[in-house]
Specification:
This is gibberellin 2beta-dioxygenase. It holds the Pfam family DIOX_N. Keywords: Dioxygenase, Iron, Metal-binding, Oxidoreductase, Vitamin C. This protein has about 325 residues and is an alpha+beta fold. The chain has one domain (about 35-330): Jelly Rolls (Sandwich), CATH 2.60.120.330. Helix content is about 30%, strand content about 20%.
Length: about 325
């Protein structure tokens, strides 16, 4: 099989892990559901000026966050032209030679591929990504020859930040709390963007593009292409998410689940590799400062109080010691 020079050595790395597959349980008793559409929410309701429309829209956001942990939004205020420009720049970046992406310090040396901590195929990601802190996005020197990417990405990050804060404020208000009670802990210094590329994978349809996981932030906003591959856990079954290029996908992260005392759900999700087509997506992660204390919005609290820094450290330790994230169950009372 011919591997393009711009793709990372995923087949090489996966083959090495496959020789260890006897040590990795591949069993999976979770049944697969048909492809479904996520709840669709028109955010025009938030700015219509009609009190009933605004309440209806806010209720829909809160309901989807509680019942699905995922929803999609249209009329979200992010320019469709900006989304197209960002996708074009992202594709150009990933088509750069692998050696350039891996060794030239692009985007604050944020390039990763596969999974360096994987000990078996079940833990391997058939993907590559740039994982970029917002604080580094404006640094012109880190873009190398990709000069047109910087301006687009700065605008993109700003738009996503505004949308994420707006949605988070709605979710806070629906729990009868003031925006300021949680808004004060959001911190651009710890938020980040992740540019994802999932090369086509012809060796198997069972390989993960991104292994099953929950997000460790408050809120994630995803812009994906038309290829599909995203799946989430719903009613103990995997649901394939029908792609919609004109909508943005929003999902609840672990921190919002903890803060809401399990009212909002951080749901396990994954990406499956595609045997014929490559896939692109961009994720924005809304995070607090590392020393922000995550406590429940009401008592009795399901979880102990912890900081975002403590949570990230525990995740890193678990991945290092047992190969995967444990997450919120580490912090139950």
């Amino acid at each position: 099989m011919m591997i393009e020079s711009w793709n990372p050595p995923l087949l090489h790395d996966y083959s090495k892990l496959s020789r260890l597959q006897s040590n990795c349980d591949r069993s999976n008793d979770v049944l697969m559901m048909e492809e479904l559409e996520l709840p669709m929410i028109d955010l025009n309701g938030l700015k219509s000026g009609d009190e009933r429309e605004m309440v209806r829209c806010e209720n829909a956001i809160a309901k989807a966050s509680s019942e699905w942990g995922f929803f999609q939004v249209v009329n979200h205020g992010v320019s469709l032209d900006l989304l197209r420009k960002m996708r074009k720049e992202q594709m150009k970046l990933f088509k750069a030679p692998f050696e350039m992406k891996a060794t030239c310090g692009l985007l604050n040396n944020s390039y990763r591929w596969g999974n360096s901590t994987a000990t078996c195929p079940k833990q391997f990601n058939w993907s590559e990504a740039f994982h970029i802190p917002l604080t580094k996005i404006s640094e012109a020197a880190s873009y190398g020859e990709f000069t047109t990417l910087r301006e687009v990405m700065v605008e993109y990050a700003t738009s996503m930040q505004d949308l994420a804060k707006s949605l988070a404020s709605v979710l806070v208000r629906k729990l009868d709390h003031k925006d300021s009670e949680i808004g004060e802990i959001f911190n651009e210094n710890s938020c980040f963007l992740r540019l994802n590329h999932y090369p086509s994978c012809q060796i198997s349809q069972e390989i993960f593009g991104l292994v099953p996981h929950t997000d460790s932030d408050f809120l994630t906003i995803l812009h994906q292409d038309e290829v599909g591959g995203l799946q989430l856990m719903k009613d103990s079954k995997w649901v394939a998410v029908k792609p919609n290029q004109n909508a943005l996908i929003v999902n609840i992260g672990d921190l919002f689940q903890a803060w809401s005392n399990d009212v909002y759900k951080s749901v396990e999700h994954k990406v499956m590799a595609n045997g014929k087509k490559e896939r692109f997506s961009i994720a924005y992660f809304l995070c607090p400062s590392y020393d922000s204390i995550i406590g429940s919005c009401k008592e009795p609290s399901i979880y102990k109080k912890f900081t975002f820094g403590e949570y990230r450290y525990q995740i890193q330790q678990d991945v290092k010691l047992i190969g995967h994230k444990v997450g919120l169950s580490r912090f139950l009372q």
